[in-house]
Specification:
eleven-stranded mixed beta sheet; three-stranded antiparallel beta sheet; single chain; rod-shaped; 16 strands; alpha+beta
């Protein structure tokens, strides 16, 4: 009966599908803000999830004894009174009959009356909580963490808001025939045995709640999944390995991009340098043939191995040559390697 009433409340209030009805009156006090619940998918035939309460709060699974400083705000939500006529042949009617054990002999419908009165909403200050958890770690030795981690279907959730009654409330159920005036209080001689039942529960009873899923990393850090797009769970070894490979791939991609940019700039510089050389008049293009100028030599004849040209072989393209000049020196080296054409003449033009 209680579960049917809370489901009806959630269906009518809505809240974009975030609200979850409390399934049992005996567990209503376990769905308070910052309490932990376990979310588990029933099976592939049932798209909805099952939420199971736990005796723990978020603080219980964190390392350290520091309390969570995030506050809880409260305000009145609405005044809820509901009367509905439910067919015995529907799923909801069958659920109520099985839950309450009401006598439905000669009946085809059930009248349900829920009187919750003014209900209040209690919610955690999300921004404050998000700032605080950045410095907190999960205790993997906690029994709830160990059990949840061993199941790939279980997701830990934190209750972020709860909806509670403010006064003593009642639920009434009466079995009858559709079309009759459904009444909830009968004299004993007018009421067939077991056709009318009612329960009364105390004030401050939680009737609905909403949660944020937890995503827990291998190092103990965790995130609150504040949107429906992000999903909770535990980071797996294979997931961490894949994430590392993905980061390495991005690093290598960025490094290759920088290398190609450097090659491109180097190539543009050489193109400008060589085009400037070839655009000069022929009378100025070969300084090395003039009297008194430096002389091209084959460095192999002087037991000097082939190496990169000092002008065009210092970049990513290792352009090597066997020619050079003994009249020039760089960084204490008594010769420089230069391609015979055009690097030799370009180098000496720049030297002049």
């Amino acid at each position: 009966m209680f579960a049917a009433a809370t489901k009806s409340f959630v269906k009518q209030v809505g809240d974009g599908g975030r609200l979850v009805p409390v399934p049992s009156l005996s567990e209503a006090d376990k769905y308070q803000p910052l309490s932990l619940v376990v979310k588990k998918k029933r099976c592939f035939l049932f798209p909805r999830y099952k939420f199971t309460s736990t005796p723990f709060t978020l603080k219980d699974i964190l390392l350290g004894d520091r309390e969570i400083s995030a506050g809880i705000s409260s305000y009145q939500l609405l005044n809820y009174e509901d009367e509905s006529d439910v067919s015995l042949y529907g799923r909801r009617g069958n659920h109520i009959v099985n839950d309450v054990g009401i006598n439905v002999t000669g009946s085809d419908s059930i009248a349900v009356k829920a009187s919750f009165g003014v209900v209040t909403k209690h919610e955690v200050e999300v921004s404050t909580l998000l700032k605080e958890i950045t410095t907190r770690k999960i205790n993997f030795d906690h029994s709830l963490i160990r059990q949840s981690r061993s199941s790939r279907k279980a997701v830990l959730c934190v209750v972020m808001e709860s909806i509670r009654t403010t006064r003593q409330c009642s639920l009434s159920v009466h079995a009858g025939i559709r079309g009759e005036a459904m009444r909830f209080h009968f004299m004993d001689e007018q009421n067939p045995k077991g056709r009318d039942k009612a329960i009364v529960f105390p004030a401050h009873t939680t009737i609905a709640f909403s949660v944020f899923e937890l995503f827990i990393y291998l190092d103990g850090a965790f995130d609150l999944c504040v949107t429906s797009v992000s999903k909770g769970g535990f980071e797996r070894e294979e997931t961490a390995t894949f994430a590392l490979l993905y980061r390495l791939r991005n690093i290598l991609f960025e490094r290759n991009r920088r290398v190609m940019d450097a090659i491109s700039r180097s190539q543009l510089y050489l193109d400008d340098l060589f085009s400037d050389y070839y655009d000069k008049p022929l009378s100025m293009s070969d300084i090395s043939l003039k009297e008194g100028t430096h002389i091209r030599v084959n460095l192999l004849n002087h037991n000097i191995p082939k190496g990169p040209c000092i002008l065009c072989g210092m970049g990513n393209f290792k352009r090597e040559t066997v020619y050079g000049c003994f009249q020039c020196s760089v960084d204490g080296q008594k010769y420089v390697r230069l391609h015979a054409v055009p690097c030799f003449d370009i180098w000496h033009k720049r030297m002049k």
